[in-house]
Hints:
This protein has helices at 17-34, 46-52, 55-66, 116-127, 141-152, 195-200, 202-205, 219-231, 248-252, 261-268, 275-286, 326-340, 346-360; strands spanning 80-83, 87-93, 108-114, 131-138, 156-163, 170-175, 181-186, 210-213, 235-239, 256-260, 292-296, 302-305, 310-313.
Amino acid sequence: METWLLNEATAFCYADPEAAKEEIKAAGECRARERSPNPPKLRLSCAWSQLLSGIDRAKHEAKHYLTSSSKDFKLSIQRLVVVGSCMVDLVSYVPRLPKPGETIHGTQFIKGFGGKGANQCVMAARLGAKTAMVAKLGNDTFGHSTVQNFHDNNIDCDYVTLTSEVSSGVAAITVNEQGENSIVIVSGANSLLSPADVEHATDVICGAKVLICQLEVPMETSLVALQMGRQYKATTILNAAPGKVLLQEVYDSVDILCVNETEAEILTGMVVLGLEQGRVAVEAMRAKGPPRVVLTMGEQGVLYSDGASVKHVPAMKVDVVDTTGAGDAFVGAMAFYLACHPHLSFDEVIKRSAVIASTTVTAKGTQSSYCVSK
């Protein structure tokens, strides 16, 4: 069997600090041999083999290593890759949501970073996952500030591209005193993210443990990303939002389908108001193909199924300030646990993700409400 060697950059893909230390030690021992006239075959540790989940991806990574010097080598493998949308959030806080044709006075305005894809990626990164974003932005002030925000959150944005054809995406958000929101999005550059952009990002997708998509970019782009994730043995997550009727090809490419009540109604044609209706909807969505289905229901908690039965996790009781981005926080947290803590049961992943999502509704803003792992 072929053997491989990776340098100390490998260590940063380990959630376990002790495993990271061992990888650095092994890399140091091999560094001198790399400079010899007849370098040995490259060696791959067992832990890294499990992370790559297949010799094809190991070969792909080794090829990049062999064409780079030890000093300049940039690790292309990311544990978690998000293909999706970026927005700038323009948020107005109001006593109540206005009626059609009505003008009301707001109490506060804030500008922040959002977009379902960006939110999910930032949440996972702040929890400690090594992440990469595949997206398209306008070549404008919003686009440049979004790229800087990714850098600030230690997110690989090598495959975030800028276009001068349209503006960056924006979201106009209105939040009432109960924390409920109404959102209008203008997709802008998100609508130009293409299957070719995704294929260009093979370097990061090929090594992902988890790949996340949403529907704020063209569905054909998300489909290609999901299919590539499956090809490279990643766990594929589709947050089917905003709600749209899905092609069967999409269902067939998804390992975990995550939706809220409104999106579940669109996918099933069923009214979803309470837990019993939610259970029926979860079973109906599982019947379409995804092995696991997760239904987030706000203050009613989370319903999910990964097999024989539909289970329920109650929502944590908190003082709600702003629910914007809570669903994205849940998806990002779920992906983090799946990628970085594979020993956890799916039940435990859902419970922990629900707690993290609950904490985000206690503060104003979207990404500004997301916790940072200590």
